[in-house]
Write a structure and sequence with these properties.
Length: 307
């Protein structure tokens, strides 16, 4: 997820939290994986009390999220990044410049169209939804409660709401999601060419290296199988800018914000697919809140500019 910073008072807490070498080191460690306070203290050779003070500062600034989790000796405080990228700019107060205060969160099960082939399935916090490897259950009404889904080939499509007003244009859109390939069971070496489309325009293809099941996902509910099952994905950010489309800062295509401008009141369809003629037809798994390693849905952030 991208965190936007400006010259407002809310951003001041972030700047203050970042003005510390130990806190920057903590963020570096959490970028690798979620960690407990004790693990952070051991990694930095600090006392747990000292780390707790720094963690509180980072949590107050909204840079990390801490939640209780089971440990070897009872409950522990597990810390994870709330954002893995920052973008800052100076904004005019007149409202005539760019705005970055528009965002939305789309639950994994809230797709509006789909066509999938097995292996496939969906799950919510309490259980799987229907029978596994049966595409018919992608139409089940319980899918709206789904926070993880997977398929070997095909697509899911979501509707991104359009908040543009007359006289405004889309200058940039960032789409953050946790995803990986989909192998039968799991397989860390299972490449998949995952395609992204926005507003009918192809954004590009990203090759995911595998379907990760080597260790249990931090957020997975207790009932989720620990063996021979996908556990977590990679957090990726697809950014459509005025210069082109990028994934984690690496250019995917020349498709720019100009190519995906929606008409007033028209939504933006987002399609995530694995095409049958792809070089690596390795499926896709999408994680939402409560599954995988990142406690988030498909997160969308907009930048709007005057026409």
């Amino acid at each position: 997820m991208i965190r936007y910073l400006s010259t407002d008072d809310k951003s001041l807490l972030v700047y203050e939290a970042l003005a510390s070498r130990p806190r920057l080191d903590i963020l570096d460690w959490l970028a690798k994986r979620p960690m407990s306070v004790k693990e952070i203290a051991e990694a930095l050779s600090f006392s747990s009390a000292t780390v707790t003070v720094h963690v509180q500062k980072l949590e107050e600034a909204g840079l990390i999220v801490c939640s209780p989790a089971p440990g070897k000796h009872g409950r522990q405080k597990l810390c994870r990044l709330a954002a893995d990228s920052f973008q800052g700019s100076i904004r005019t107060r007149s409202g005539s410049g760019y705005r970055d205060d528009l965002s939305c969160s789309i639950r994994v099960g809230h797709y509006t169209d789909y066509s999938v082939k097995p292996t496939c399935g969906l799950a919510m916090a309490s259980s799987f939804i229907g029978q596994l490897d049966d595409p018919r259950y992608f139409s089940d009404t319980r899918r709206f409660d789904a926070d993880v889904l997977w398929f070997a080939e095909g697509f899911v499509e979501y509707r991104i709401p359009n908040y543009l007003l007359p006289g405004q244009r889309l200058a940039r859109i960032d789409i953050s999601m946790e995803l990986c390939s989909e192998a039968p069971g799991s397989n860390e070496i299972w490449p998949s060419d995952i395609s992204f489309e926005l507003g009918g325009a192809p954004l590009g293809v990203w090759t995911c290296p595998g379907d990760f099941g080597d260790k249990r996902g931090v957020l997975n509910p207790d009932w989720w199988p620990s063996r021979n099952k996908t556990q977590y994905g990679l957090l990726k950010i697809v950014s459509v800018t005025e210069e082109g489309t990028f994934i984690d800062g690496v250019k995917l295509s020349d498709t720019s914000a100009r190519d995906v401008q929606p008409a007033f009141g028209q939504h933006l369809p987002l399609r995530i697919s694995v095409l049958p003629d792809a070089g690596n037809v390795g499926g896709v798994t999408l994680f939402g809140r409560g599954f995988g390693n990142y406690d988030q849905n498909i997160e969308i952030a907009f930048q709007v500019a005057p026409v």
